[in-house]
Design brief:
There is one protein chain. This protein is an alpha+beta fold and 243 residues long. Helix content is 17%, strand content 33%. Strands 1, 2, 3, 4, 5, 6, 9, 10, 13 and 14 form a ten-stranded mixed β-sheet that branches. The protein has a two-stranded antiparallel sheet with strand order 7-8.
Amino acid sequence: MKARIPTLSADEIALVRSLPIFEDQAVLALNKPAGLSSQGGRGQVNTLDELLWAFAKSSGRRPVLIHRLDRDTSGVILTAKTKPAASFLGKALMARRFDKTYVAIVTPGAPEPRNGEITTALRREEIGREAYMRACPDDHPDAEPSRTLYRTLAEGPGAALVELRPITGRMHQLRVHLASIGRPIAGDVRYGGAVAIEDAPAPRLMLHARSLSFPHPDGGKKTVEAPLPADFETLARRTGLIG
């Protein structure tokens, strides 16, 4: 079936063309803003997947998403510009050869211990039209083994800046893992995150995909980094987590 080509507004084209942070003949990496669904979003004119038509060639080919980020998560997201690159990267992702690093603002302070590993199993739960992930015992019939490495980068009054490395890739894994140890991500109302830190509002889920390392289709390994968005940096400064 031929893909539907959406009609993009001038503002949408300008937005998506402002997002690239790395590009070569095989891949295109973008710094996705919070509030933009990767795929299949509801209540939006177009998702990032559809906005990629702004990069379409005369042949009708466009970049293909290799992985997703939650709607309210910002940061690095990778696409492939050719079919061979998409196949190569898809297999590498399934083989867990991608190394993803995130940063999050959590409350009410640093995790205990400050650095460590979370191995709580997760299970999916449907409530109406919404999907949630829940922490569960390892022997639950729907349990999915899950693993996250973390370390505390800074701590301020009522909050901490934490670096996260997901070893497995479950839906909402970082969000539920941090909530499971009593340190939910600020702004994550779905999983108990604070909507404000003292007098500083958390305008959205304070989770940012800072860097992505992956095997390049042409050989070697490539690392792409995305700078902190303004809303994340503002909250981190107001809570004393960065200078």
